[in-house]
Each structure stands twice: as structure tokens, then as C-alpha cells.
Amino acid sequence: MTNSNPKLDPAAPAKGPIVLGIETSCDETAAAVVDGERNILANVVLSQLDDHAPYGGVVPEVAARAHLAHLPGLVAQALEKSGCDWEDIDAVAATGGPGLIGGVIVGVMMAKGLAAARGLPFLAVNHLEGHALTPRLTDDVAFPYLLLLVSGGHCQLLIVSGPGDYTRLGTTIDDAVGEAFDKSAKLMGLSYPGGPRLEAAAAKGDASRFALPRPMIGRDDCDFSFSGLKTAVRRELEKLENPTEQDIADLSAAFQKSVGDSLVDRTRRAIRLFRQRHPEGQSLVVAGGVAANKYLRARLTALAGENGLDFVAPPIGLCTDNAAMIAWAGLEHFRRGETSGLDFAPRPRWPLDPDAEPKPGAGVKA
Ligand code: KG4
Ligand code: ZN
């Protein structure tokens, strides 16, 4: 269990509205309390890594049971750490989707129960919107901004114009970028979770040793594709037969560089579109679990600089799944007078831009 947020300051005077947030959409059980002055009063995250590691990936039923077992204790802990009583809480927000449906149901039922028992408004939050609005919690970024959302289930470029107001410029047509990290890491024999392990291996590697594809580069849209890259990793591994630690480090570095080249090329194109539509826009933002990757952050920082944009990435503990982002996204809607009904049904699929053309890639099912 962590209290990993650098902004966490229980001594800070809380300013309303104060929202309790709950996150249970994947393999992190989390609860947080956030106020309207962007103070994170409590942020507790229980990772289920050890529960899923033996299976090499997240097992939905195991995740749902673990959420059920731990969520009540985590909510109590978040409240205690925040220094708030129930009387201080103005609303209860929970991830309403997209995600593994068993876990989402656990979080939504808990939040609805608490809201009903305490007579508080309930807010169902889109998990992706939690990631998307985090830079406003951490850095007070003004709308509109260009967002590269890179997680285990998604890889999208979006213009963020306001809470609930998203224009998708591009998306993956197959695997999500975090999924590509995880699958390639697994092929290389790196333990779960693959993304951080692959980054650590790449730090000791020579990226120039393997010529991997740079998917979608130069295409006249802002879409992504990562499944070919994963296949190329598999082919190189087959050629190596018994790869050494150095082989894996070099292949990891080459993989990470290809991902970086691809993200930079696609984002450069999106910056052009963003500029045309919003000349007043000032920020490129990266969010989602893969935004924890320091190499990719450096590449995107350089890209933003070349284009005269500010670069904003949340602190690493707020890139991966947490409940502070859910409380904050709920708060952004709450202060606009928007709440959800207790009849809200958890949504396994919930696109940020409902008008965007459906594509076959990640996020269609999840
Ligand atoms: O946002 P997140 O915590 O959960 C989803 O909503 O998907 O993202 C998890 C993803 C996983 O695929 C994980 O491997 C990846 O983020 N990830 C990383 C790093 N840390 C987490 N990928 C690359 N480098 C990292 N340092
Ligand atoms: Zn996430």
C-alpha cells in the first residue's frame, strides 16, 4: 500500500468541494480524497501485482475478488488519512468504466452504497477521463490541450476542450502501447508487469543493434499500430535461440526506440492539427501508465520544445492507475453541477469521443 503522491499533504487546509474517489477498473484497488483547490488529501493504492504475477497477466475474477476484499478498508484508510469526516465529503466518485467489468461493478456498488447511506451525490467517472484530466490536478493546465493517452488498454491522441469534451485525432488500430510493452516483455522472458521491466532492461541496451519496424511513420493520419512491432520482437528472439541478458537489453532498447519514434511521429502530426484548430492551445500532455516511461517522456519533452508547446506529464505515481485522478475528474464534473443517477450501469466500453469513427484496435472491447 502506498501513499505515493508528492503533493499529498494532510496538514493543508482543505477547500471544498471535497470528493472521495474510488478506482477498481483493473488490478489496482484505490481510494483517494481530493479538494477543489487541487490538494490531494489522501491517496491510497493497493497493487494486486502479487495476486496476478503467477498467471503472467491480470485475471479478471481474481481482480474482482481482491477489489471486494480490500476496498472497504482502503476507503476507511483514505478518509482517515485525509483528516475528513463524512460531513466534510461533498460527493462520491467511482470509475464507471471502461475496464474489467467485475472490478468496475465492485467500485460502483460501493460508491453508490456510500452515497445513498450518507445522502451524497454519486458520480460515475470515465477511467480514461481520470487519466486525461490529471494534468489539471497536478499542473493546472488550461483547456484546450493536446493529450497523448498511453495505457495498457489504449493509445490515443485527443484534443481536450473541457470535462466530457474530447475530439479524438488518432487511435491504435490493433494493440495498445502498454499492451505491446507487456507482450514484448513476456516474449523476452521479463517478469510481469512488463512495461517497467522492459524500460529497466533497455537502460542497459544498445538500441542500434536490431532494426525493428517503426509502425505507421509518415502516414497521413494520427493512428498507431503496435502488433507488427511485437511480431518483429518475436522473430528476432527466434533468431537468437538462447538470448543472453545483453541480447534482451539490446532488444528492449530497440523496441523502446521504435515505440518512441512512432509516438513522436504520430504526435507531431497531431500537433499540426491541434495548432490549426486551436492556435491558442499551449500544452502537450501525456498521461496513462506508459507515461511513467522516462525515455518516452524525454522524447516527448523534446518534441513539445521543438513545437513551442509546454510539456506536461503527471508525476509517475499519478500516471499509473490511482483514485486521486477519479476523485478529480468527478470533482470537475461536480462543480459544473453534473452528477450521475444511482441507476448508472457500469460500462465495459466508454469512448471519450463518442463521435469518433470506431476502429478495430484496443479500447473497442475494453
Ligand atoms: O494506466 P495504467 O496503469 O492501466 C490502464 O488503464 O491500462 O497502465 C498500465 C500500463 C501497463 O501496460 C504497463 O506495462 C504500462 O502501463 N507501464 C509502462 C511503464 N509503467 C507502466 N510501460 C512502459 N514503461 C513504463 N515505465
Ligand atoms: Zn488506467
Question: Any overview of this molecule?
Answer:
It is globular, with a radius of gyration of 20 Å. The chain folds into 2 domains: about 20-135 and about 315-335, Nucleotidyltransferase, domain 5 (2-Layer Sandwich); about 140-315, Nucleotidyltransferase, domain 5 (2-Layer Sandwich). With about 375 residues, it is an alpha/beta fold. Residues about 1-10 have low confidence and may be disordered. Helix content is about 40%, strand content about 15%. The protein starts with 17 loop residues before the first strand and ends in a 32-residue tail after the last helix. Helix 4 (about 125-140) crosses helix 11 (about 325-335), helix 5 (about 175-185) packs across helix 6 (about 195-200) and helix 6 (about 195-200) crosses helix 8 (about 245-275). The strands form 2 sheets. The protein has a 5-stranded mixed sheet, with helices on both faces. A 5-stranded mixed sheet has the order 8-7-6-9-10, with helices on both faces. The protein contains 11 helices and 10 strands. The protein has helices at about 50, 60-80, 100-120, 125-140, 175-185, 195-200, 225-240, 245-275, 295-305, 315-320, 325-335, and strands at about 20-25, 30-35, 40-45, 90-95, 120-125, 145-150, 155-160, 165-170, 285, 310. The longest helix is centred in the last third of the chain and has 33 residues, at about 245-275. Bound molecules: 5'-O-[(R)-(carboxyoxy)(hydroxy)phosphoryl]adenosine (KG4) and zinc ion. Zinc ion binds near residues 127, 131, 151, 289 and 321.
